[in-house]
Design goal:
The complex is a heterodimer of chains A (515) and B (763).
Chain A lengths: L3 H21 L20 E12 L3 E2 L2 E2 L2 E8 L15 E6 H4 L24 E13 L2 E9 L20 E4 L4 H5 L9 E3 L1 E2 L5 E2 L5 E13 L8 E6 L11 E4 L12 H6 L3 E5 L4 H8 L12 E5 L23 E2 L1 E6 L13 E9 L3 H5 L6 E4 L1 E5 L3 E5 L8 E5 L14 H12 L3 E5 L5 E8 L5 E4 L18 E2 L2 E2 L8 E4 L4 H6 L9
Chain B lengths: L1 H4 L3 H14 L3 H13 L3 H12 L6 H21 L43 E5 L1 H7 L4 H5 L5 E7 L2 E6 L10 E5 L2 E2 L20 E8 L3 H4 L6 E7 L8 E7 L3 E12 L2 E13 L12 E3 L6 E17 L2 E16 L8 E16 L2 E16 L1 E3 L10 E16 L5 E16 L10 E13 L4 E12 L4 E12 L7 E12 L3 H5 L1 E5 L5 E6 L13 E12 L5 E13 L2 E3 L3 E2 L2 H5 L4 E3 L4 E7 L1 E3 L3 E16 L2 E15 L15 E10 L4 E10 L2 E9 L2 E9 L2 E12 L5 E8 L22 E9 L1
Parallel strand pairs in B: 4-7, 24-30
Antiparallel strand pairs in B: 1-6, 2-3, 4-5, 6-7, 8-9, 8-40, 9-10, 10-12, 11-16, 12-13, 13-14, 14-15, 15-17, 17-18, 18-19, 19-20, 20-21, 21-22, 22-25, 23-24, 25-26, 26-32, 27-31, 28-30, 29-30, 32-33, 33-34, 34-35, 35-38, 36-37, 38-39, 39-40
Helix pairs in contact in B: 2-3, 3-4, 4-5
Classes of the chains: A alpha+beta (515), B mainly beta (763).
Chain lengths: 515, 763
């Protein structure tokens, strides 16, 4: 090891040499590179490529093109529903309509008075492209998803407006574009950023990392609106919940009967939420206007069988985790735990999600549904499961906890037919190992989410029903600041105290599910 | 002086003349003149007395009378031809004692806006002398201030130094009022000082006066924690000079100046060039994840400057001084919030006229600044915030100074004045057409000498600040005791208030700031759509100080001070306010057609709800018991406690080191060798910085370890009359020997070692 004195002398000799150099030639050497801790950030990853839009011409209003292309980058281990429980993209890039459609500007039409003008449904299709890039990103593997906001109603700041709606042209960095164009399921390309180290993990080098040539294709016109809903009622014969405005599920959540030979009894054992695909009639006019602009006019649910294994085929393998006898349906129902003290912010450390069971006219009817089931309907039912998923998103390789309040019903029947298969399925979906444990569910307040296979979703509560911190609620509760408050959008589902505290002492909530 | 007292006039005069060459000083010149007169060299004595009078001394009348007497004696000498070889004539002897005891007594002008003895100053005052400047070899003016007790000098980049004192350390340092010859030099755009963009360099600096403690009662807004006044060399003094320097990492320095006098007209003109590299680069050339600006990635600061200073004396008490300067600079600075590693390419010019018509002083100043600036680099998909600010400021001041006796025993030194500033800024970070601001201030100070030992100084000022539409008062009261018979000790107690008004950036900000998710932005604005009555208030300080200074001993000086500051309403970045549906109802939010990003939140500024209580003290001493050797040392301690009123979630920090030590030794030899070795040490810091994140503006804590700096210079003067001088200067000599080079701010460069060699020549 070099002594400090020798190091000191060497550094001086170097400096004297440099000084000599400078005396003859000013300008020797660049300063060393040092990236301090702090907001300016060091070497990071970047993804760049071309956005290719294929679809109808955009609408125009007030002399401008309506809408913009939005590209979102998701960590492959934290994808948004239905593929995961991720909430926030790690990268978001926008290309305005003005920029994207500039090559075809001459084809656009504008109303003289500035009113909205949209191309006819059978109008020409155009293909335009623009460069895009997203940075900074950490080392990892990513999906790129996106859409063109055709109706200009997208707003990333608001839960009620942060997802695409009917008519938007969706897509992403798709691996099987031809298959998608033929009607097949979308397979997103996995984009690796960073070099692989000796442990097989991706790292960003000193020069950063960059992946070029990623093509994002926006080609799929979304056929449905987001699954806007309100709670019509609650069905509960176990825990005395009779008002949907205050539903409390005990954290030990005992299940009286789980026997598909007795579908009625089984259904009765679950707390069920009845959802309507619209708001109350007295709210609809307000909801359609500013500042909500909700699509209440012909709101419906588009129900169908869920392709659980994502193989593009609906078959006997696409069933609920508990049993192969009951098919899985969409829209998916997910309850997400909220941050303590907040009605809008989801808890992020850890993410806690209760996957609900979507039912069409009850368990018995659902069990009878065939592979080609698909219906536009105004109502559906969510049966709340005695289980949650707990995910630590700050540690992408950490195992996911599948917490089950009960292993068996009151009669001793297993609640899950094949636990191993369930764990494997979840592990494949989330890209991390899964540990199944039995214990009481984490108490707290939960938001309810309905999610279509397209990723379009609706969440209650949302801003329409909750006043922000800077919006003063009126005394009668009808206003937040100067705008209306939609009461139906404020409902929170709660997991509360257990029916049997002794059970919870013996089967406590694991720490991986606690904040 | 001893040689002269022994009658060895020629040798003594030669020594005095050599001293005057090295360190020109009016008192030295007076002694030369008197010695010449005593030696019988009346012609030369008259010449030197005249050069002494050109320094505008206070005893002008007495010396003019002496000149009359000398001329009469010269005439008599010629008439009697009584001069013999080498024998001193009694005709020239004045019989006076030489001015040795207070040969180097300084006078300061900053603490009371008029010349006074530092012992009479109402605040602790330190002078960075011409000797300090010359022997240190330092070319960065902020680094010269590091040796002052209680100062914080923070180099973030090679072009960005932030100077503050007594606990107000921070980026975009704006708590000190920085003056050059009484002219404000801060930029009103950011409220900070671009030290490496000045039109002067250290070779133009005569001395630097540092007044610690609030000074708003005299200077108005922004003299919050103290005042630093850089006094330039007087036109006509010091001769023509050239100095060039070259250092490692392509450091360059050049300074040329010429000065002269023609009767009552004197001038000084100078030009110079400086290049400082970055200490370290944040962005390597190999980076593939971002895009860089077109600026040179290695330059921290580059400055080309020119300067002209002309004075004209019309009669006793009537003088005109006009100075002007221009600089073109490229500097790398750090801003606030998300603005780091920002490069400014700017032009700066000014004209300043000062007319003294005793007892009035009139001043008219015009300053212009225009720049092109941008972030040095940004991730792909993120903007560089290119911009081109422009600032024009016109200032007019009138001051009245009068000494009189109101009652028989009380002598009053009264100063009163009126100041006006017109400030106009055009900048695309601000609202469209920000208002032209008209600032008005009126002040008065009365220094009452109650007795030989007691002096009371009271001052007050009222400023109208347009951005807050309020008249803000400031006051200061001091009692100064001179307890000893000699009057060379002073005990000082003072209390004062000061304020800092919001800068243009704080008053009129309107800038969309891109968030980490590149498609999103936060509108940072000084006004609030959701609170139309919101107004940013000024920062406020209440200060109390107790100080003691002792200059009794000829070879030793000591000074100490203890202080308390109460700082409230500090201006900081406001918490982000997420977009709400009420905002949407009001037509806000959505995509910004100009930027192509979605606005998801609002931000801006706010006055911090917390109150800082700062306790501290300074102890400093200087010893020059051995001829040619000066030793100086000082220690400063600073404690800050945060008071949080109910509901306040302010974060406590420790951005000022609790303990700071400066020490050094200066050597001057009779054979031309001189040197200085200085060391600076300060303890660890804890910073709380506001940064933009996915969640908005959040406080994040950063710890910096303690660090030291060891600086040294060795110079050798040679050739006849020591006209030439070669010098080697090392900054942070031990960098990298004990731990990595220090950072002075968590986001800053690693400040390493730099060596420069200089060659200077005096004509």
């Amino acid at each position: 090891m070099t002594s400090p004195l020798v190091h000191f002398l060497r550094s001086y000799c170097v400096n004297i040499a440099w000084l000599s150099c400078l005396l003859s030639i000013a300008g020797c050497g660049e300063p060393d590179t040092f990236v301090p801790e702090g907001p300016q950030g060091g070497p990071a990853g970047a993804i760049a490529g071309q956005l290719v839009y294929s679809g109808p011409l955009p609408c125009t209003r007030d002399g401008r093109i309506v809408g913009s292309a939005v590209m979102m980058v998701f960590d492959r281990r934290s994808l948004p529903p239905p593929d995961g429980v991720g909430r926030t993209p790690v990268g978001l890039s926008v290309i305005t309509g003005e920029e994207l459609f500039s090559p075809v500007y001459h084809q656009l039409s504008f109303e003289p008075d500035g009113k909205l003008r949209c191309p006819p449904p059978d109008g020409p299709q155009v293909t335009v492209s623009a460069a895009w890039h997203v940075a900074p990103l950490s080392a990892g593997e990513y999906h790129v998803r996106g859409f063109y906001d055709h109706d200009g109603d997208y707003n990333p700041a608001l839960i009620i407006a942060q997802l695409p709606t009917r008519g938007d042209i969706a897509g992403g960095a798709i691996r099987n574009l031809a298959g998608v164009m033929a009607g097949g399921p979308v397979e997103y390309a996995v984009i690796g950023l960073g070099d692989l180290d000796h442990n097989g993990l991706r790292v960003i080098g000193e020069a950063g990392a960059r992946v070029d040539g990623v093509t994002v294709n926006l080609v799929l016109a979304l056929p449905h609106e987001r699954p806007l809903f309100r709670f019509r009622g609650v069905l509960d014969s176990q825990f005395a919940n009779d008002r949907v405005e205050r539903v409390v599920v005990p954290s030990d959540y005992p299940i009286a009967t789980f026997d598909l030979a007795d579908p009625a009894g089984t259904e009765e054992s679950f707390v069920r939420l009845q959802l309507d695909a619209n708001l109350k009639s007295e709210e609809q006019a307000l909801a359609a206007a500013s500042p909500f602009f909700l699509a209440v006019e012909d709101a419906q649910f588009a129900m169908s069988r869920e392709d659980v294994d994502r193989n593009g085929v609906i078959d006997g393998l696409d069933h609920i985790p508990e049993t192969s006898l009951v098919p899985a349906l969409t829209p998916l129902g997910l309850l997400s735990k909220l941050q303590d003290g907040s009605s809008l912010r989801p808890q992020v450390a850890p993410v806690v999600v209760m996957p609900a069971m979507t039912l069409h006219e009850g368990l018995a009817t659902t069990a009878q549904l065939t592979a080609d089931f698909g219906e536009i309907t105004g109502e559906l039912m969510l049966a709340l499961r005695p289980a949650v998923l707990c995910i630590d998103e700050s540690r992408p390789n950490a195992e996911l906890t599948l917490l089950l309040a009960r292993e068996r019903d009151d009669a001793g029947r297993a609640l899950i037919e094949d636990p191993e298969a369930v764990q494997q399925g979840l592990s494949a979906r989330f890209g991390r190992p899964v540990r199944m444990v039995y214990g009481c569910l984490p108490q707290g307040r939960y938001a309810t989410n309905l999610v279509y296979p397209s990723g379009q979703a609706w969440t209650v509560p949302n801003e329409a029903g909750i006043c922000a911190a800077t919006e003063t609620e009126s005394q009668d509760g009808r206003l937040c600041g100067t705008r209306a408050k939609l009461e139906s959008q404020s409902v929170v589902i709660e997991i509360g105290a257990p029916t049997d505290p002794v059970y919870c002492e013996a089967h406590p909530t694991p720490s991986t599910c606690l904040p | 002086m001893q040689l002269i007292a022994q009658g060895r006039y020629e040798t003594g005069i030669a020594e005095l003349e050599r001293a005057d060459e090295i360190f020109p000083h009016p008192a030295v010149r007076y002694n030369i003149a008197r010695a010449l007169a005593d030696a019988g060299h009346l012609d030369r004595a008259i010449t030197v007395y005249r050069s002494y009078l050109r320094t505008e001394p206070d005893d002008r009348d007495a010396v003019e009378a002496l000149l009359v007497d000398l001329k009469r004696r010269r005439a008599a000498q010629l008439a009697t031809k009584s001069m013999s070889r080498g024998e001193p004539s009694a005709a020239g002897r004045t019989g006076e004692v030489g001015r040795t005891p207070h040969l180097y007594e300084e006078r300061i002008v900053t603490a009371s806006r008029r010349a006074q003895n530092p012992l009479d100053a109402p605040n602790s005052t330190t002078i960075v002398t011409a000797q300090d400047i010359r022997l240190s070899g330092i070319t960065r003016i902020p680094e010269l201030l590091r040796r002052v007790a209680g100062m914080d000098v923070m180099q973030i980049t090679g072009g960005d130094s932030n100077v503050s004192m007594r606990g107000s350390n921070g980026r975009l340092a704006n708590k000190l009022l920085i003056l050059i010859d009484g002219r404000v030099i801060k930029n009103d755009i950011l409220g900070s000082t671009f030290w490496e963009g000045l039109a002067i360099d250290v070779d133009q600096v005569e001395r630097i006066e540092v007044v610690r403690g609030p000074g708003s009662s005299l200077y108005g807004a922004d003299a919050f924690a103290g005042v630093v006044n850089i006094i330039t060399r007087t036109p006509g003094e010091g001769g023509n000079r050239a100095r060039v320097g070259v250092g490692d990492h392509a450091q360059l320095y050049a300074s040329l100046s010429t000065t002269g006098r023609d009767g009552d007209l004197a001038y000084r003109a100078g030009a110079g060039f400086t290049r400082y590299p970055r200490w370290t680069r944040e962005v390597s050339s190999a980076r593939v994840d971002l895009r860089r600006s077109d600026f040179d990635q290695n330059v921290g600061a580059q400055n080309a400057r020119a300067y002209l200073d002309v004075t004209r004396r019309f009669s006793k008490g009537k003088r005109l001084r006009v100075t002007s300067g221009y600089s073109h600079s490229l500097i790398d600075i750090y801003g606030v919030g998300p603005f780091n590693d920002y490069v400014v390419d700017m032009d700066h010019g000014y004209v300043d006229g000062r007319l003294d018509v005793d007892p009035l002083v009139f001043r008219l100043t015009y300053t212009h600044l225009s720049a092109f600036a941008s972030a040095n680099a940004a991730y792909l998909g993120h903007g560089l915030y290119e911009t081109d600010p422009r600032q024009d400021v016109v200032g007019a001041d009138v001051q009245f100074n009068r000494v009189f006796r109101l009652l028989a025993h009380f002598e009053h030194e009264l100063s009163a004045g009126l100041g006006y500033r017109l400030k106009r800024v055009r900048w695309n970070y601000l609202v469209d057409e920000p208002p032209t601001e008209n600032h008005v201030g009126v002040f008065a100070q009365d220094a009452v000498r109650v007795s030989k030992a007691v002096r009371v100084v009271l001052s007050g000022r009222v400023d109208y600040v347009p951005s807050i539409r309020t008249a803000v008062p400031s006051a200061r009261g001091s009692v100064i005791l001179r307890p000893s018979e000699s009057g060379r000790q002073a005990v000082r107690a003072s209390v004062g208030t000061a304020f800092r008004s919001p800068s243009f950036l704080e008053s009129h900000l309107h800038l969309p700031i891109q968030l980490s998710l590149a498609g999103l932005e936060m509108l940072s604005s000084s006004s609030r759509d959701d609170d139309v009555d919101f107004r940013l208030g000024p920062e406020n300080i209440l200060a109390a100080e107790l100080g003691y200074a002792n200059q009794e001993h000829r070879a030793f000086q000591v000074e100490t001070a203890a202080y308390y500051h109460r700082i409230s309403d500090a201006i900081e970045l406001a918490d982000a306010r997420p977009l709400t549906l009420s905002d949407v109802a009001a037509g806000l939010g959505g995509i910004n057609p100009e930027t192509g990003r979605f606005r998801v939140a609002s931000g801006g500024w706010q006055n911090d709800c917390g109150v800082d209580h700062v306790f501290g003290g300074e102890l400093g001493a200087r010893w020059y018991g051995v001829e040619g050797i000066d030793v100086f040392a000082n220690y400063a301690v600073n404690y800050k406690l945060l008071e949080r009123p109910t509901g306040c979630a302010a974060s406590a920090d420790r951005s000022t080191s609790r303990h700071k030590v400066n020490a050094g030794v200066q050597l001057r030899s009779s054979f031309g060798l001189d040197a200085e070795l200085s060391v600076h040490y300060q303890t660890a810091q804890r910073w709380v910085e506001q940064i933009a994140s996915l969640e908005g503006i959040v406080d994040r804590r950063f710890d910096l370890p303690a660090y030291h700096l060891l600086n040294g210079s060795v110079g050798y003067s040679f050739l006849e009359r020591r006209k030439a001088r070669a010098e080697v200067v090392v900054f942070n000599a031990l960098s990298g020997v004990v731990g990595p080079p220090p950072q002075m701010h968590p986001f800053g460069n690693r400040v390493g070692r730099r060596i420069m060699g200089f060659l200077s020549y005096r004509l």
